[in-house]
Amino acid sequence: MHVAIAGNIGAGKTTLTNLLAKHYNWETHYEDVDQNPYLNDFYEDMQRWSFNLQIYYLNSRFMQIQDIRNTKGTVIQDRTIYEDAFIFAPNLHSMGLMTTRDFENYFTLFNLMDSFVSPPDLLIYLRASVPTLVNHIQKRGRDYEESIRLDYLKRLNERYEAWISTYDKGKLLIIDIDNNNFTENQEDLGKIINSIDAEINGLF
Fold this sequence. Notes:
56% of the residues lie in helices and 12% in strands. The chain has helices at residues 13-24, 39-44, 46-69, 81-94, 100-114, 130-140, 150-165, 186-201; strands at 2-7, 27-29, 75-78, 122-127, 171-176.
């Protein structure tokens, strides 16, 4: 089984991936942040590096999905291939940080890859307001995230909501992070686990 967690920067995807993997004894696939050779450059000069970064992520996530497909047990994935294509790349394009030529090239490649991948059996979307995202981002203190602007997070949130409102590739569980502090509250985590159990039981 393939479970994936989607959500904006700072929503808590990696933390929830860790907690659920520990609870269910699932195998994890993380977003490649530390090894990403473009990320620092991108935050320094988004216009120059946006296309390179998005192609890197596309390739990285496509390889992840191939690995997940070949794994026997249940895998939980931190961020999906769809978020790059429907949220981050179009947002960069609309902000004038990726040319139309590059965006069309990127999207053609995504559509080709999408025809070869299976969607997750369960998608968990972490919905969070911009103040909550900012609070999480400040707490974890990654240097390259210090320059992220509020309007950038707001634009991403709007695109996430638009994407989730039409998501029909499989089962979807939405968790409101403004009202669920699963990182510090066991009871809140328990609520998420109960919801996941209900969804998983419905899969079989």
